[in-house]
Specification:
single chain; Rossmann fold; nine-stranded mixed sheet; five-stranded mixed sheet; 13 helices
Length: 567
């Protein structure tokens, strides 16, 4: 490919609305352009990178035993309602009615579709196992699209789904997909870590996330010097074994807080630190009301609370349910006098003379003390971990790192196969739901993650296997006949050898061309200039290491062949 014959609109200035390094460089290098908020076009160089990533994924998924399919992006809403996820998608879903009045969802994921497909195709245990994958565009109405292609409304995903007759088969497919993911991300040049995670809306009993460190990611990982590693969604901490201080007050005192509902509002108006307040959140656990109490400067971890209660499902109560449970509108709940079970975080044991809601409209209560004023049903680790919490393995304190998820694998079990009737007849003649696994990769995010990890102040430094081209030829002076003829000859010879070559044949100043070469980040650069050419040489430079060497024209092909070439 020649630069003069393609579209690479490089930019000298950093776009004002770009925050992430990958967003800035992808725009400046002419890889992407925004069409609307959270929606991007991929230009020639960016699309070549995407295709490289897709090919690596495809090769490793096939190697791992999965077969490729392509499913519709348009889903009947009835499928999502049958699985119970239509409501849980909330405002993230993009749904509409067609001219016939039938409602559809633009697919953010494909568990329902694949389960319906496989369920209609399997009859007996002899039809299993099945492992299918696709690479397709997905959609969600992301509330705050940010950081370029890291968080978008339209994105490319690889999703795979396995169906097995028993736990042993599910474990085997899960292992194969995990190994495939390790190979994929390694080939893409990423430094990643695998952390245990909360299955969340997906359901199931086990999941792991493949994470890369990224200051613009939306996830956080907890680690410790002892080797503990977990997503903050499920990260635990050691019991601090706090002792309850003796109260300084004789009794609690109700005071007026008209229209002051939040921790921040109360703290600002009455000079109370958030850590001195008791935050009380009302939930419905398996349909029954329960109150969770944590210090005001922390947040309830719903997953931990659900596991502490042994509940199958948990959700925050509606305003009507809150008023029914507490006698007051939203914003005035507190543990004193509640007739529903109260679950307190361990940290509450170390608090005294606290401020909390009074279960009355426009009123709070101060000087609240554990045991004297309220008695919880139980204590436990029900808040999100914080930097410095003691590690649950007893080895040091927790450190929190901001990360970006690039892959996620789940053991879904029968979460979807039961409700969507994907059943088979086993060897005994009994009908059983298949056991299901789910395995996703964010293709766009690999592009962004590679830029985040591999760049300098001049531009991108592409890992070899996903670079848009292997080699870039740059002429110092395109007007010089001998230079141009030598560059053309090198270009044609390398193409005949099957190398992926990009030729900057523009009639631009050398400085502009070198700056652009650094910006777009092709791994190997062959510089053809008059001075070196007079001695029969060209310069070869590695973008990744910055190392340069003079190579004679007759030895150039051999020298480039000795460089690391994508597999």
């Amino acid at each position: 490919m020649r630069w003069s014959q393609t579209l690479i609109p490089t930019l000298r200035e950093v776009p004002k609305d770009a925050e992430a390094v990958s967003h800035k460089l992808a725009l400046r290098a002419g890889l992407i352009r925004q069409l609307s908020s959270g929606v991007y076009s991929y230009l020639p160089l960016g699309f070549r990178v995407l295709k490289k990533i897709v090919q690596i994924i495809r090769e490793e998924m096939l190697r791992g035993g999965a077969d490729e399919v392509l499913m519709p992006a348009l889903h009947p809403a009835e499928l999502w309602k049958a699985s119970g996820r239509y409501e849980s998608l909330g405002e993230d879903k993009i749904a509409f009615k067609n001219r016939s009045g039938h409602e559809f969802v633009l697919g953010p994921t494909h568990e329902e579709v694949i389960t319906s497909l496989v369920g209609s195709s399997i009859k007996s245990f002899r039809d299993l196992p099945v492992n299918l994958f696709q690479i397709q565009t997905k959609f969600r109405d992301e509330a705050r699209p940010r950081f370029g292609v890291i968080r978008t409304k339209e994105f490319i995903m690889k999703d795979a789904y396995s169906f097995d007759i028993d736990e042993k088969g599910l474990d085997e497919n899960y292992r194969k997909m995990s190994e495939a993911y390790h190979r994929i991300f390694t080939r893409c040049g990423l430094t990643f870590q695998v952390v245990n995670a909360d299955p969340g809306m997906m359901g199931g009993k086990m999941s792991q996330e493949f994470m890369v460190e990224c200051p613009y990611g939306e996830d956080r990982v907890a680690t410790s010097e002892g080797g503990y590693l977990a997503s903050v969604d499920i990260a635990q901490r050691a019991n601090p074994n706090l002792k309850t201080p003796a109260p300084k007050s004789e009794k609690p005192e109700v005071f007026d807080t008209p229209n002051l509902r939040t921790i921040e509002e109360i703290g600002k108006s009455f000079k109370v630190k958030p850590g001195q307040m008791l935050k009380t959140i009302i939930y419905r656990a398996d349909g029954k009301p329960v109150a969770a109490v944590v210090p005001g400067d922390t947040e309830v971890n719903e997953g931990k609370l659900r596991r502490h209660l042994g509940a199958s499902e948990i959700r925050q109560a509606t305003p009507e349910e809150i008023e029914s449970a507490t006698g007051a509108p939203v914003g005035f709940a507190g543990p004193v006098g509640l007739k529903i079970p109260v679950i307190c975080d361990w940290d509450v044991l170390g608090m005294a003379d606290s401020v909390t809601g009074a279960n009355q409209k426009d009123k709070h209560i101060r000087n609240v003390n554990l045991n004297r004023d309220f008695k919880p049903a139980s204590f436990g680790d029900i808040r999100y971990v914080r930097e410095g919490d003691k590690s649950p393995d007893g080895k040091g304190n927790l450190r929190l790192t901001t990360t970006m998820e690039i892959g996620h694998i789940f053991k879904l079990g029968t979460r979807y196969t039961e409700c969507l009737n994907a059943v088979f007849v086993d060897e005994k003649g009994d009908r059983r739901p298949a056991l299901m696994g789910c395995y996703g990769i964010g293709v766009n995010r690999i592009l962004a993650a590679a830029i985040e990890e591999h760049h300098d102040d001049k531009g991108i430094k592409w890992p070899a296997e996903i670079a848009p081209f292997e080699i870039e030829i740059v002429t110092v002076n395109q007007d010089h006949l001998e230079t141009r003829e030598a560059a053309e000859k090198i270009y044609e010879e390398l193409l005949r050898e099957g190398r992926e070559v990009f030729y900057d044949d523009r009639n631009e100043r050398a400085g502009v061309k070198f700056n652009d070469a650094d910006l777009i980040g092709i791994p190997l650069r062959v510089v053809v200039g008059e001075r070196n050419l007079a001695a029969g040489n060209v310069e070869v430079k590695s973008r990744m290491t910055g190392e340069t060497q003079l190579v004679s024209l007759r030895d150039l092909a051999k020298a480039l062949s000795n460089q690391k070439k994508p597999a």
